[in-house]
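Data card: per-record layout.
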Amino acid sequence: MSKLVKIGTVQMSCTANKEENLAKAIIKIREAAQKGAQIVCLQELFTSLYFCDVEDYENFKLAESIPGPSSDKLSTVAKELGVVIIASLFEKRAQGIYHNTTAVLDADGTYLGKYRKMHIPDDPAYYEKFYFTPGDLGYKIFKTKFATIGVLICWDQWYPEGARITSLMGAEILFYPTAIGWATSQDEATNSEQYNAWQTIQRSHAVANGVHVVSVNRVGLEQNGAMKFWGGSFVANPLGRLLYLASHDQEEVTVTEIDLDRTDSVRVHWPFMRDRRIDSYQPITKRFIDEN
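The structure for this 292-residue chain is written out next.
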């Protein structure tokens, strides 16, 4: 038996015009649906340029409520096309409280809920702690028409704990909307090493948890040419094999068919879940395990 699901990935560039980006994303969702997609994932913060390169109070004006204007429009599209949409947005929760959040819309247009990014980076050109309050909803799964999915966001990619917990909750697929790139001043060897590390850690989540992993990144030059978002979106199966790999510089709308029944087969033959020593993992809750 097979439980086949067609995954649409939208890798695109963005402009400073929020409505233009949303309209472009909707066009690409339609393209994915025409190709047979049942679940469509957009990249992180797709309605704007990646604004966290600077600490600028004006950028808070990009935020909106969730549910809100953008999720409402996407809900209408989801219902019309009969597809699930995973949409990463800048959420204004209350005055002075903002989150990096992904909304999930079911194939009948129903708003299923949201996941708020748990791990917030603060690096040169990635000043997210200035904008985003860490997520407080915990890890989430969403029971959509086509699959039970888990959603994590960008910097969450580097943490095996988030992938593990979401998988243990019953996620059949892990989705990672992403915005990550290279400083254009870097040499190619450094660029290659960074991208390979990014891809490897996520493929390892697929292997460790026996689930498919879908990572969707943006492309294009931003920050006045100082940052090249590296694209490289991909779909990995439960053994970490790449089923799809995007280019580093082209917009791509691709549909990849996956078989959710691979999870059961892989977990039986590679029984990592069976052999987990949950009685021994308490130290993982410490910040650091000091000698004392």
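Known properties of this structure: The radius of gyration is 18 Å. Residues 4-285 form a domain with the Nitrilase/N-carbamoyl-D-aminoacid amidohydrolase fold (CATH 3.60.110.10).

See the next section for split statistics.
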